Amino acid sequence: MPDDGLIAIKPEIAAKALVTAERRAAMAEQAATDPDGFWRGEMGRIAWMREPTKIKNTDFTGDVSIKWFEDGELNASVSCLDRHIASGRGDQVAIIWEGDDPASDSKTTYAQLHARVCQLANAMRKLGVKKRDRVCIYLPMIVEAAVAMLACARIGAVHSIVFGGFSPDSLASRIQDSECSLLITADEGRRGGRKVPLKVNADEALKSCPSVRNVIVARNTGTAVAMREGRDHEWAALCDAEPTQCEPERMNAEDPLFILYTSGSTGKPKGVLHTTGGYMVWASFTHELVFDYRPGEIYWCTADVGWVTGHTYIVYGPLANGAATLMFEGVPSWPDNGRFWQVVDKHQVNIFYTAPTAIRALMRDGEGPVKKHKRTSLRILGSVGEPINPEAWLWYYRVVGDERCPIVDTWWQTETGGILISPLPGAVAQKPGSATLPLPGVTPALVDGEGKFLEGATEGNLVITDSWPGQMRTVYGDHPRFVQTYFSTFPGLYFTGDGARRDADGYWWITGRVDDVINVAGHRMGTAEVESALVAHPKVAEAAVVGMPHELKGQGIYCYVTLNAGEEPSDALRKELVAWVRKEIGPIATPDAIQWAPGLPKTRSGKIMRRILRKIAANETDSLGDTSTLADPTVVQELVENRVG
Ligand code: WT7
């Protein structure tokens, strides 16, 4: 490897690549100078019921309006199913399902998936679900999750998936915000040999969700669950007798496809809204280019459908491209830490897409568990969710990929719908730790704190200067919040919330969030959400939460807690608070450290100085900066002396 860290494009990949360096440059050039022409050329990758004549109509100023393909009509499920069957690929495998238990797996062909989607879609229509109604999906990683998504799309219902690791309270607040009329769940989920009580959680949540009139329950573990007469329906009983054909709803390109809640720096999670035409074009375009996807290849993204990665790169992108997409119910460490590679060999996976946190955890166990498996089918490796440190990148490259497989480090967000910055395997030389270059049609830039553009090799706030088809359109039910969150910090520009560095080669290095969002094992968490969970505890007066560096998870959750007068700190109370936050938000929000704070560093106007709290959590206490503006500078010394960890 040369000194500048550049890993050259592999000649054998470039020779057969879908997109070469020259082609990439030509695409980027056309996308920049003639976006309408470029995207008119790309829109044919999905099936239209009515071809759009208007292509791009977007404005990042004022009220912000983003429309793509606005007079087009389509149905996303037709692009993912019907047209593959029409072209004779009905018997090809669409979903390879690998259970938590290594002995359980299944294959579903495009024709079978189509039939199951149509049956559920018909059943949902009978329950009265109509176009634009919201349907909440709270399912484990079973085939039914993809069926439910596509069935919603079929009838024009807007799905809102809630990750199975969220608590009843988190589920309830998401259902309430978008007033879902139907919930699709399962008896239980399975993960790493343990059961997740989904129906029990759902029942708890539904106590405060009057909008939900019906619940469909998939049978997964088969355990007995309470079924409320008139509200709860067994999936099989409801669907098995339904016809296997279902007329797809004609949707406008700008009709909503789904809502997905994500955390921001303030307030409750936002319902990120994606629409149909642009999102589907983006999902197909990026899945094919970034993974250099070829018909017949087996593709595996290890994410959960509860996150955007699962939406775009387990379901919509791969299925739009006619791929065989692998859905994995389990975890990398069970029954042992060779599971990923065992599954790769078992299903002959060609393209493998996972998160840095998983790589770091596996790296800790050394090469043994990897080398026990052949992995010769692998061709492309991907990374997503957080910055990948060069050490983990190189381990992934050398040990997992045997220096044979290019790594695509893909930067994107729930809001962006799909990948924005990433190498293309046959077109862009890689650098360990860099997401490299923007995809054609993506225009990143760096600005300083005042919004002034920064040129050349430098670091700053990452913005995108113009729209791309997969961009979110609004925050569900709160367009002003959309404008405020993404377009007000730097007027006229989409602000990502990330910081980035651009090097002398024009390569992009994402440095992490610059707002009060933390990234715990690739899961996005608002510090404000954890704080409000903590202060909801009767013994807590005040709380401040920051991210801290964590070897495996990237960031951990560090909480400063001030107790009510008269309450004594204790180990028991610490455990109680950890359990409390898990119950309020879900296990993914488990605090890593709780420090008792008699006082918090505040300015004279009462604003908590998080900069100082971040430094203490990171154990960088010799660079606390100026503390003279604090109302009471002595609290800092106290916190430094009693830092935990
Ligand atoms: C945030 C978005 C992208 C889908 C999964 C997470 C961070 C994501 C990378 C990457 C560095 C990354 C950013 C971003 N992030 N991918 N390849 N390199 N950072 O989606 O939950 O919406 O989180 O994840 O900080 O803003 P999300």
TrEMBL record:
InterPro entries: Ac_CoA_lig (IPR011904), ACAS_N (IPR032387), AMP-bd_C (IPR025110), AMP-bd_C_sf (IPR045851), AMP-binding_CS (IPR020845), AMP-dep_synth/lig_dom (IPR000873), ANL_N_sf (IPR042099). Residues 86-466 form the AMP-dependent synthetase/ligase domain. The keyword Cytoplasm does not apply. Keywords: Acetylation, ATP-binding, Ligase, Magnesium, Membrane, Metal-binding, Nucleotide-binding, Transmembrane, Transmembrane helix. Pfam families: ACAS_N (PF16177), AMP-binding (PF00501), AMP-binding_C (PF13193). GO terms for cellular component: cytosol. Its EC number is 6.2.1.1. The chain crosses the membrane at residues 135-157. Gene3D superfamilies: 3.30.300.30, N-terminal domain of ligase-like (3.40.50.12780). One of its GO terms (molecular function) is metal ion binding. CDD domains: ACS. Acetylated. Deacetylation by the SIR2-homolog deacetylase activates the enzyme. The modification N6-acetyllysine is found at residue 607. Catalyzes the conversion of acetate into acetyl-CoA (AcCoA), an essential intermediate at the junction of anabolic and catabolic pathways. AcsA undergoes a two-step reaction. In the first half reaction, AcsA combines acetate with ATP to form acetyl-adenylate (AcAMP) intermediate. In the second half reaction, it can then transfer the acetyl group from AcAMP to the sulfhydryl group of CoA, forming the product AcCoA. NCBIfam families: Ac_CoA_lig_AcsA (TIGR02188), PRK00174.1 (NF001208). Belongs to the ATP-dependent AMP-binding enzyme family. This is Acetyl-coenzyme A synthetase. It comes from Roseococcus suduntuyensis.
